[in-house]
Design a protein that fits this description.
Blueprint: E1 2-3, H1 6-18, H2 23-45, E2 49-54, H3 58-72, E3 76-81, H4 90-101, E4 105-108, H5 116-121, E5 126-130, H6 142-153, E6 158-161, E7 183-187, E8 205-209, H7 215-220, E9 225-227, H8 230-236, E10 251-255, H9 263-274, E11 279-285, H10 289-295, E12 300-304, E13 306-307, E14 310-311, H11 316-323, E15 328-331, H12 339-351, E16 356-358, H13 361-364, E17 380-382, H14 386-393, H15 397-402, H16 404-415, E18 418-421, E19 427-429, E20 435-437, H17 450-463, H18 468-490, H19 497-513, E21 522-524
Parallel strand pairs: 2-3, 2-5, 3-4, 5-6, 6-7, 7-8, 8-21, 9-20, 10-11, 10-15, 11-12, 15-16, 16-17, 17-18
Antiparallel strand pairs: 1-9, 13-14, 18-19, 19-20
Amino acid sequence: MKLVTTSEMRAIEQRAVEAGIPTLVLMEHAGRAVAQVALDVLRMRGGRRVAVICGRGNNGGDGLCAARHLHNAGVDVRVLLLARDQDLSGDAALNLRAARAAGMEVDNVVGVADGAIRAGIAGYNLLVDALFGTGFRGPAVGLAARAIEAMNEALVPVVSVDVPSGLEADTGRVEGPCVRAAVTVTMGLPKIGMVVYPGAAFCGEIRVADLGIPKAVIQDVGISAEVATAAQVARLLPPRAPDTHKGTYGRVLLVGGSTWFSGAPRLMALGALRAGAGLVRLAVPASIYGPVAASIVEAMPLGLPDRDGVLEAASLDQILELAEDADVVAIGPGMTTRADVAAVIQGVIRSCPRPVVLDADGINVLSGRANLLREARAPVVLTPHPGELGRLLGVSTAEVQRGRIHAVRSAARITGAVTVLKGARTLVAHSDERLVVIPTGNPGMATGGMGDVLTGVIAALIAQGLGPFDAAWVGAYLHGAAGDHVASALGDRGLLAREVADAIPVVVRRAHEGTLPEPIRFLHAAGAA
């Protein structure tokens, strides 16, 4: 499903107007959709009293239009307008006049005491939040903030118009009070801030209102973001033909580990094997070769020159020689950040003839030197968690988390590498601005070793012929779906990375069968799936 930014949705609406659809018609479609959803909620929960809280902009106009349709349907509707009549203009002002002409109760709520809004919505069965739209930038203050707080404290369902008031539509950021909606009726297409955290936690069920905009108009606007789906994954991973062999499914070279982190390369190998790689070669420091070789018998282990349990710079030539016989190289997990490791990583970036998946210490040794990745001989996929991405870009982890979309797109643009920003709703960005939101995954995956498995999965998919960008988002989707599969049996505590790796073949099969649940479902505003 495509996701839009505020500017992309405005461009779509402008083209619709140019194609002969007036903005007033778009507002009428929006208001009718909100009213229909409100009626659906009332039918499920009971009651016939609705309070609509409107702002002065077009979002308020949508709310006024919805109120009129609810009034016509016999619902007891009250509108609380947080503005004077003269503050409204354009289509919103027209809908205000129409509401008053219909004999509706419309109260101007300005300069009132703190308790007035709470009193005004008391006793209603449903609230419609039409206070702020996609143009909002937080935090909400003053009367608007009090209105949001009153809606949240009312203990009745809230239907939000387009986005919950207090949520930034382009970022998912919430910097002050924000409406916690039971349902959000979003116009035309979902907004990207609705499916990333923290915004995703405020939207409730998302229903998409059809504004009557021709599909050709939408297609003409270059929408750059989308939510990954199981159906897309199944298309990119077709069933295997019977007349194939291990060479058909690629050769993966994995490099990682140290005396302190001998588990990381093993989990990387397990991820690659479970994701379907034909042959996996696992290169580790010679000092841990024995235990690694004994514990992951399906991979082909190799010991490389090391000093005190960490790879030496002298191992670079051997890694590059091994890369010649591979389809992809994944490197970094468990290697530490010693100077020799930094030399190896830089050498691989500059000289490796195959795509490189760079994770963990492979990213940490580049802290503050993101531009070095521009020197890469072959395509690179980065798989950082927020702390690693912050170190790479020279910003704090908090800054990355505050603007995850901006951070991941910046990293992809600066480095030229496909960038996978791990976390709740993992984001995968391409340097050309394409962005995929990964809806799979759960809190049980917040444990050591999960990222090592993901690195192996992405490498395996590249080896099987997917391009780096597709391999990155498909790998992240499968990894999260495997975690969800394990959590469905065990709960979201105590999940092990190896269990998630073992579940990957199951979720691939279920994707082909069409039985893999989609964590995010967008419904039509009328309620049909």
